[in-house]
Amino acid sequence: MSDAKSKIIIKRVKKVTGGGAHGGSWKVAYADFVTAMMAFFLLMWLLSMTAPEQRARISTYFKSFSIFEKSGSSFMDKSSEVFKEAGESKMQADATSTTIVSKPEQLKDNLRGAIENKLGDIKDQIMVDIFEGGVRIQLVDKEGQAMFDVGSAHPTSMAQRILKVIGDSVTTLPNPVSIEGHTDSLTYKSNAYSNWELSTERALTARKELERFGLAPDRITRVAGYASTVPFIKDNPADPRNRRISIILLFPEKDMPQSTAPIAPAPAAVSTPVANP
Fold first, then answer.
1. 101-255: CATH number
2. Whole-angstrom Cα distance, residue 25 to residue 22?
3. What's the Cα-to-Cα distance from 29 to each of 19, 23, 38, 39, 231, rounded to whole Å?
4. Distance of CA 196 to the CA centre of its chain
5. Edge to edge, what strands does the sheet with 220-225 contain?
6. Cβ(243)–Cβ(141) under 8 Å?
7. Cβ count within 10 A of residue 193
8. Which of helix, strand or coil describes residue 272?
9. Domain ranges, ordered by start, for the chain
10. pLDDT tens, the chain, 277 aa long
11. Which helix (H) or strand (E) holds 222?
12. 140 pairs with which residues across the strands?
């Protein structure tokens, strides 16, 4: 009788079909994100550990890759011509490229290109030639357009503009640099200050400007002033073109052409102006 009167308790369990904010779907998305980031940073690390030549080959491979063609060779096994061609194309497009220039002729052409593009209005006052020891860049005065204030080592705005372009063009190169200062034959009334001091101070000013524009100080091997002893225009020592700064990028002897000119500056008719590449 007591069993019949006992109550029957029914417990209903609600089945949860969705987790809502407390579900686990976000964990899958987060895991995918972490995996993608890990793959990205792994790729960046591999690229940073890869030589420039190999990166150029990888880039060339994927630019020409096609799913419809199958190649039997790996891009890592190709010759270094791919990297060489890529470097040459970059150098032709931008004379201030960070690609290291190993030949004097190549550097001369690159410097001419930079001068033509950025200093076209005053390119007749910048001359680039090759002689025994390196590639020489000469900043030459002309009547009414001087590189320095009269009788001073203070550079004009034009000289600063030229030195900036030169500095940008050679700052990434390994070549040692020599800087020379030259004056005309006009002398001072006082013996306390002569063309020797003036030419040397102007060469030092050019050094400071190039360093300010990025040239490493330890690349400079010599700074010298020659006064008027090595005229650019030998027939007229008083010609304003004798006032000049020579910046010389030195190369190992094995890289220099066999038929180079002597180190002494040549007359204007022999030196190669940028205006006539």
1. 3.30.1330.60
2. 9
3. 15, 12, 14, 15, 76
4. 33
5. 126-131, 134-140, 244-250, 177-182, 220-225
6. yes
7. 12
8. coil
9. 27-93, 101-255
10. 555 567 777 777 666 565 555 567 888 888 999 999 999 988 888 877 777 667 777 777 666 666 555 554 554 554 444 445 444 444 444 444 444 556 888 889 989 999 999 998 999 999 999 987 789 999 999 988 999 998 899 999 999 999 999 999 998 899 999 999 999 998 876 778 899 999 999 999 999 999 999 999 999 999 999 999 999 999 999 999 999 999 999 987 655 554 333 334 433 333 333 433 3
11. strand 220-225
12. 244
The DSSP bridge pattern shows strands 177-182 and 220-225 to be parallel
The b-or-e profile of 68-106 (16+ CB within 10 A means b, else e) is eeeeeeebeeeeeebbeebbeeebeeebbbebebeebee
Residue whose token pair is 């029914």: 10
Q: Would residue 151 be called left, alpha or beta, if left means φ above 0 and alpha means ψ between -120 and 50 degrees? A: left
Distances in Å between the alpha carbon of 95 and those of 87, 89, 115?
Answer: 11, 10, 9
Q: Strand pairing of 126-131 and 134-140?
A: antiparallel
Q: Tell me which residue of 117, 131, 157 sits closest to 262, measured CA to CA.
A: 131
The pair of structure tokens assigned to 28 is 């899958």
Q: What CA–CA distance (Å, rounded) separates 242 from 231? A: 5
248 has which bridge partners?
136, 178
| Residue 241, amino acid | R
